[in-house]
Specification:
single chain; 264 residues; mainly alpha; 12 helices; elongated; disordered C terminus
């Protein structure tokens, strides 16, 4: 349905409701309401829901426009409000925690924020934005806790030998050294305080997964994955065995690029 047609269908109900509730909309404001309703792709629902949608739209559409438009003057302020609401709801519902000490509260908030970004297009002003956000928060964090519990029961960490490992190069001796290095580093990371380091090593540096794919696997926001990968690279860069392997690789005419770059 074209935007002018959507706006035309909304106009009679909007004009009547605005007058009855004393919204005191000027002609310019009325046109802006109709334009935004059309731009958000909201065709009029059947009565009696039409008036209910307009009430929620009247209250919440300014912040919705700010959330969806990165160039909007209030874009950052709108997302700060979303973050505060997520934390408020999560605390009230007892969901702002994790059995994994390496998962911080900010990780949980970012998980919900990512879900909000994916779901914004589904919000149709059939409830208040605050109520909808509460629903998204509870649903996403409940799924996180459910998946975390299942992962612990199933010991979800893939065995090292099950992860695809690419050959370092055609030289048998150098390949053997690299394979031994991978095994040694994996063993060291398996005893690290942060158990995610081994998973990150396997998924990123051996299986070549993206931050988004790793985030889905570990229930982390991609930005958090990137931060942890930075820590992992710093750990590997300070490892003498990695330094020795890199020195050996540097002497060769064609060092294998993937592992060399990822260890730095």
């Amino acid at each position: 349905m074209a935007e002018p047609e959507i706006a035309a269908q909304w106009r009679p109900t909007l004009v009547e409701l605005a007058q009855r509730l004393s919204w005191n909309l000027s002609n310019e404001q009325l046109d802006a309401y109709l334009s935004n309703l059309a731009r958000l792709g909201l065709p009029p629902p059947l009565q009696p829901y039409c008036e209910q949608v307009l009430r929620y739209f009247h209250h919440d559409h300014p912040i919705m426009l700010a959330l969806r438009d990165e160039e909007h003057a209030d874009h950052q302020r709108a997302w700060a409000w979303v973050s505060e609401e997520i934390q408020r709801v999560a605390r009230i519902k007892g969901l702002l925690w994790s059995g994994d000490r390496s998962v911080e509260r900010t990780d949980l908030v970012q998980l919900v924020q990512a879900e909000v970004v994916r779901s914004l297009g589904e919000y149709r002003f059939e409830s208040s934005l605050r109520t909808w956000l509460q629903s998204v928060t509870i649903r996403r964090l409940s799924r996180f806790h459910r998946d975390s519990g299942a992962a612990k029961r199933a010991v979800q960490l893939a065995p090292l030998e099950a992860v695809e490992q690419r050959p370092v190069d055609d030289d048998v001796e150098h390949q053997a050294l690299a394979s031994a290095l991978v095994a040694d580093v994996a063993h060291t990371l398996s005893t690290a305080k942060d158990k995610r380091m081994l998973q990150l090593f396997q998924l990123s540096m051996l299986a070549d997964r993206s931050a988004e794919e790793i985030g889905e696997r570990l229930q982390l926001h991609p930005s958090r994955v990137r931060a942890l990968l930075k820590v992992l690279r710093e750990l590997l860069a300070s490892d003498e065995r990695v330094a020795q392997w890199r020195s050996s690789a540097d002497l060769r005419a064609s060092p294998e690029p993937q592992l060399q770059q990822r260890y730095t």
